[in-house]
């Protein structure tokens, strides 16, 4: 079984220690029982992370207002949170809102 790289530094030299995975280079420890369900994915299945840039894939009406977030709107520096709306972000001209990951696509470099 091949162990995943360290999520902190990317080192491939991880090892198991009881129920944890450990990185010998940076000392980071994390749970070996992380399931695929814990990963938040965009509309096409790309895993999302804090600080990513995403693009909105459909017009989204904002509840309580007559405003909409247009398709193609680029959102920088997202924050992943638990809950129904799993992305917290700030959209220029709109402000702080929560988005669902099913309505965004990760911008790749």
From TrEMBL:
One Pfam family named in its UniProt record: YjdM
Record's keyword terms, sorted: Hydrolase
Ranges of residues in domain Protein YjdM C-terminal: 40-107
Entry-linked InterPro entries: YjdM, YjdM_C, YjdM_N
Signal peptide limits: none
Keyword Hydrolase in annotation: yes
Gene Ontology MF term list: hydrolase activity
Source taxon at top rank: Bacteria
Chain ranges of the Protein YjdM N-terminal domain: 2-31
NCBIfam families reported for this sequence: phnA
Homology family: Belongs to the YjdM family.
Protein name, entry field: Phosphonoacetate hydrolase
Organism: Lutimaribacter saemankumensis
Classification lineage: Bacteria, Pseudomonadati, Pseudomonadota, Alphaproteobacteria, Rhodobacterales
């Amino acid at each position: 079984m091949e162990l995943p790289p360290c999520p902190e530094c990317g080192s491939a030299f991880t090892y198991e220690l009881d129920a944890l995975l450990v990185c010998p280079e940076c000392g980071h420890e994390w749970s070996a029982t992380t399931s695929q369900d814990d990963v938040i994915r965009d509309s096409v299945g790309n895993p999302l992370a804090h600080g990513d840039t995403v693009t909105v894939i459909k017009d989204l009406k904002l509840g309580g207002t007559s405003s909409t977030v247009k398709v193609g709107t680029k959102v920088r520096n997202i924050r992943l949170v638990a809950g129904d709306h799993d992305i917290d972000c700030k959209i220029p001209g709109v402000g702080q809102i929560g988005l669902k990951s099913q309505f965004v696509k990760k911008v790749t470099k």
